[in-house]
Amino acid sequence: MRLIRYGLPGAERPGMLDAQGILRDLSMLLPDIGPAQLAPRTLAALAAIDATRLPAVQEPVRLACPVAGVGKIVCVGLNYRDHALEAGLQPPTEPVLFMKAVTALSGPNDPLLIPHGATKTDWEVELGVVIGTRAQRIAEAQALQHVAGYVLANDVSERAWQMERGGQWDKGKGHDSFAPIGPWLVTTDELPDPHAIGLWLEVNGQRMQDGHTSQFIFGVPQVLAYISQFMRLEPGDVVLTGTPAGVGLGRKPQPVFLKPGDVVRLGAGGLGEQCQTCVQV
């Protein structure tokens, strides 16, 4: 299934795409698509519905982050060898973890807000993993059983704040709009292998990133099991799994960063596309 939340901020409604790609309204069946709706039993019941019998949504509409009530966003840094090397760092021997603020969440096509004082705003196309059942100290062999589905994400980063202001990476990762998610949540029945997904990103029509999740240093089961040793993962939590090479920081001979008016497009096999226009705030 491909589950969607749509509507103006604060008034989002649940929906799903039918087999023909038509957006159907789910609000007569669900209050929203959040932690309580991500349980396997609920997802199985939704999968059994004849989507063509649901009301069609008159488009165009704003698409929101496809998961409501996200409790935390846990990110894996440097999870592609080529990205670590372009950043001038050695590939890690254990997953590098950091957090993004949930207030950074935005819809897949919402404006990308370049904050006042920012000078090095960068892009990172990523596979996101949405947790469906509680995971604490889990084994790798059982890790994917805790996954509700997958999303496309842009881990937007202000590099000056991340790398030049001391302390942790988080301060460069958490501004409003720095976590566009969507357009939809793809459940695991439709996308069973998270290591078989191509990822790409363009800025102003120029291809910047072109990677594949088969190139992970740490695969999704290893990442989830690892994170669960340090913190409990709850339904609705989102894990961002890292970005391939091609970020602005790594461009040669000079880094390239986002400026107002730039248009960022990104996509992934089976996960849809996003498009953000950069706006100074």
List keywords for this structure.
281 residues; alpha+beta; five-stranded mixed beta sheet; 5 helices; 12% helix; globular
Your description of this structure?
By secondary structure, this protein is an alpha+beta fold. The protein has five helices and 18 strands. It is globular.
* Alpha carbon gyration radius: 18 Å
- As a percent range, the share of helical residues equals 10-25%
Order of helices and strands: EEEHEHEEEEEHEEHEEEEHEEE
Q: Termini, distance in Å? A: 36 Å
The assigned structural class equals alpha+beta
With strands numbered from the N-terminus, the spatial order across the biggest sheet is: 3-2-1-13-10-9-16-4-5
Describe the global form: globular
How many separate helices? Answer: 5
Count of DSSP strands? 18
- Per DSSP, what share of the residues sits in E-state strands of 2 or more residues? 25-35%
Largest sheet: 9 strands, mixed
The averaged pLDDT comes out at: 97
Stretches where pLDDT is under 50 for at least 5 consecutive residues are: none
